[in-house]
Amino acid sequence: MALKAINPTTTDAWKKLQAHFETIKSKQLKDLFGSNPERANDLTVQWEDFYADFSKNRMTSETLDLLIELAEELDLSDAISKYFDGDIINATEGRAVLHTALRAPKDARVFVEGGNVIPEVHEVKKKIENFTNSVVSGEHKGHTGKAITDIVNIGIGGSDLGPAMVVDALQYYKNHLNTHFVSNVDGDHFNEVIKRLNPESTLFVIVSKTFTTQETLSNANSIKSWFLNTLPPEAVAKHFVAVSTNIESVKAFGINEANIFPMKDWVGGRFSLWSAVGLSISLALGYKHFESLLDGAHKMDTHFRTANFKENIPVISALLTVWYNNFFNAESEAIIPYTQYLNQFATYLQQGIMESNGKSVDRDGNPVNYQTGTLIWGEPGTNSQHAFFQLIHQGTKLIPADFIGYVESLHGNKDHHDKLMSNYFAQTEALMNGKTEEEVLSELKTQSTSETEISQLTPFKVFEGNKPTTSLLIQKLTPESLGKLIAMYEHKIFVQGIIWNIYSYDQFGVELGKQLAKSILSELNEGADNVQHDSSTQNLLSYYKRNC
Ligand code: F6P
């Protein structure tokens, strides 16, 4: 059944939230803490190895109740059931959205068009496991009898970002295989990767759901030509595998069926790392760790499905985005992991969140009359503190931030870890408390600054504070906890889409750019100059053609 389509701004809860916003918009977080000694406990959810503290957000328990009322009025529970049960919730593409089925246990039953998809999911997982084991153990040899030493994932967007982020994040758990990612159609990208590789000991994993993406096919073809400079065509069978829904096109590329890892159209590209798209993850970390990642995601699925909204981490997190985006008019959200391992996490989430919820038409096909998707950005702390934190602290924009930290470090260097985490705690406190005029004055006085200087400097040194943060404290970065974390954001995306009454699982905007690039490429290749463009594009094309 279809998702309901209700304009959120027409609900009673929205009106109540508007009225409530007027009473809360100028309240200071530190005063909210002062007036309620139980605030931190009231607004924290502890679940398994996750401690999610929402209390440094500009809300009260009443705000949360009203946001939950909004979710209920929009029938979020019904939408969640449809999401997990395989209903066609990606209606614009006529598809179910079932990344959750990819991590469901063997005995689960999820039906698409009358058939249970779980047995096939587990068949593909078995194929991934067997192939991983044979490559990692060295049993799978290259054409000349050498064991595989290097894996190259060729894909873009969801066929790159998820696997690349996870392999980097979980490098502590990696095996001996070197893993590389080629995504950009920029020829310099793939040349920089292959220049270090020996084709005799390299395995190429071509990942493309559609197997039509220009970047991936160009890279795959160029890499295959480079490979065939050294090895004969029959060697392709030992060195090229593919992940796709488009089996015929993969075969036409020259990969035989045994080397194809299938995926289904009900897996969205940006949610596909749990499918065969995660083959590079499995190869890099070993199948056992890949499975733990999936198990973690499944645990988060269960939490999301069963916890009541008041204790539901993805639900609260999504509702807070709505609160800031639609009532405080915040435009962006920062993701700040206090671990270098999550260096690529914000980039990964940019696709997940912005490709999903960057929509301006509602589920009835009408333009929305409210704001939808947020801008996502971020970098690991502490590096980001020395880059863009100044703007969060003292700029004019409200930027809610998720702080993600771990209780334990992986290499166990407690001295460094305590320093890292003291920055995490200090920043959330500083963002909330700011610095008052009195504090600045007394600080300047102790520095024996002159009265004139004190009065000149004070306005610049006062921090307003009241900057909202969510603190996520996780026990340790493991494949399982990373699976939980990624799934948490996936469900947050889903909830936002439901509240905003948009379709989160298509991406027609990106596809327009892909089509235009194709037609301009044929102009460049064929030298045609009779195609009409605006004068700016025309000049740019002429300049490029004259000078290349
Ligand atoms: O960026 C648009 C997009 O369609 C993404 O949704 C997808 O992840 C990416 O292109 C790659 O697509 P494919 O896996 O089909 O090559």
Describe the structure.
Belongs to the GPI family. Its EC number is 5.3.1.9. It catalyses: alpha-D-glucose 6-phosphate = beta-D-fructose 6-phosphate. Keywords: Cytoplasm, Gluconeogenesis, Glycolysis, Isomerase. It is found in: Cytoplasm. By secondary structure, this protein is of the alpha/beta class. It has 4 domains: 228 residues, Glucose-6-phosphate isomerase like protein, domain 1 (Rossmann fold, 3-Layer(aba) Sandwich); 178 residues, Glucose-6-phosphate isomerase like protein, domain 1 (Rossmann fold, 3-Layer(aba) Sandwich); 34 residues, no CATH class; 39 residues, Phosphoglucose isomerase, C-terminal domain, CATH 1.10.1390. It is built from 22 helices and 13 strands. The chain has a 6-stranded mixed beta sheet, sandwiched between helices. It has a 5-stranded parallel beta sheet with strand order 6-5-7-8-9, with helices on both faces. Strands 3-4 form a two-stranded antiparallel ribbon. Helix 6 crosses helix 12 and helix 7 packs parallel to helix 12. The chain is globular. The model has no long low-confidence stretch (mean pLDDT 96). 6-O-phosphono-beta-D-fructofuranose binds next to loops.
